[in-house]
Amino acid sequence: MIIFLLIVVFIYLFAIMPKISNTPDFTPFMARYYAHRGLHNNKNSNPENSMTAFKLAIENQYGIELDVQLSKDGIPVIFHDFDLKRACGIDKKSRRLYL
């Protein structure tokens, strides 16, 4: 009975184990910094997710990471939060608004 349980546990662990052999090489991405929402400072002229924040990131040799939400009519919008409260002071979700 114990051998049977050990075999079942081994098969279970083997089934849920992440594939080790086909793991992509992320080394090229590890050697640089990434600017989440661009290189921004919301207190001056380069707010998050703006073209100036993205340009500043590129000028400082940062990679750029951004978030995309969909508006109610299915148009992609570059915006970090699911709602507009923090950035705009509006208590609405971007997916509930038409563009």
How would you portray this structure in words?
This protein has one domain. It is 32% helix and 12% strand. It is built from 4 helices and 4 strands; from the N terminus they run ααβαβββα. The longest helix is centred in the first third of the chain and has 15 residues, at 2-16. The radius of gyration is 22 Å and the shape is elongated.
SSE topology:
Layout: H1 2-16, H2 27-30, E1 34-36, H3 51-59, E2 63-65, E3 68-70, E4 76-78, H4 85-88
Parallel strand pairs: 1-2
Antiparallel strand pairs: 3-4
Mean of pLDDT: 87
Question: Which descriptor suits the 3D outline?
Answer: elongated
From the N-terminal CA to the C-terminal CA, the straight-line distance is: 63 Å
Total DSSP E strands: 4
Overall tally of structural domains: 1
Structural class, please? alpha+beta
The largest pleated sheet is described as:
2 strands, parallel
Model regions low in confidence, pLDDT < 50 over at least 5 residues: none
Enumerate how many helices there are, as a single number.
4
Radius of gyration: 22 Å
The helix fraction, in percent, is 25-40%
Note the beta-strand portion.
5-15%
Order of helices and strands: HHEHEEEH
Strand order of the largest sheet: 1-2
